[in-house]
Amino acid sequence: MNTWRRTEGGIYAPDEVAGAWERVAKNRYVAHVDMLGMSQLTLHDPKLAWSVVSDTVIALRRVMALSYRVNGRHIKIADHVASFTFSDTVLLFTKGDEAEDLRLILIACLELFSQGLWRCAPFRIGLAHGLFVFNQDENAFVGPPLIQAYRLGEQAQWLGCVLDERVAERTAELKPALKGQNGCDLVVKWMVPLKSGEKASRPVLAWPLSHRNNLKVQPPICAESFYRGFIQLFGPLSNLRPRDRAKYENTVAFVNAMLTA
What we know:
Elements: H1 3-8, H2 21-24, E1 26-35, H3 38-44, H4 46-64, E2 67-70, E3 73-76, E4 81-86, E5 89-94, H5 99-118, E6 123-135, E7 140-142, H6 144-155, E8 160-163, H7 165-172, E9 187-193, E10 199-205, H8 207-210, H9 223-227, H10 231-234, H11 242-260
Parallel strand pairs: 6-8
Antiparallel strand pairs: 1-5, 1-6, 2-3, 4-5, 6-7, 9-10
């Protein structure tokens, strides 16, 4: 555990000074990451589900070990972002809400999503900003951005990452800007399909642009080609329930729009 996570976290009474709300409750960026279809997979094939969870842990370790050079400084993701894993759910949260905290949790989300696709784990992510307190010794986490991040990810009917408006606004202020390899913006507006059957214009991470070289099939991509790696988990695309099949079709529509614009 990094030093900041131990010193910044809240501690239960009777240590009232160390656990004082005013000391530990800070504005942070919080990402909620979960995997589509995990409940059904666990009931159907717990051994395979365990393999997927294990792959997720390995992917997370690789992401947290990454570092980048920004504005002439070498910065590590783990110095700004902490993680907690429960089954197929990953919680990411930052040390504070400085620009470097935001940049690195955005990069962590992009990298974890990419690692998930490479390992055939279909992630959906919500990322929000607000007052958040934690105690990793006790696995305790409280704050509105956790609820908001969960709702943003859970409502979206696709594989992707949805941001709240505050995160998007602050991302637009980053210097240098968060750009892809070709100088393209990595936060875009998209009409995100929702569980209600409606669509809502929301800021999202343009992961096809940040990791376009990872795609083995040239656009336009069909849903069957994109889904091929997930057959081992959920069976043929044609056998999925219409609402589950639509999640992959919605994802492919986003991929094609990003790569053919």
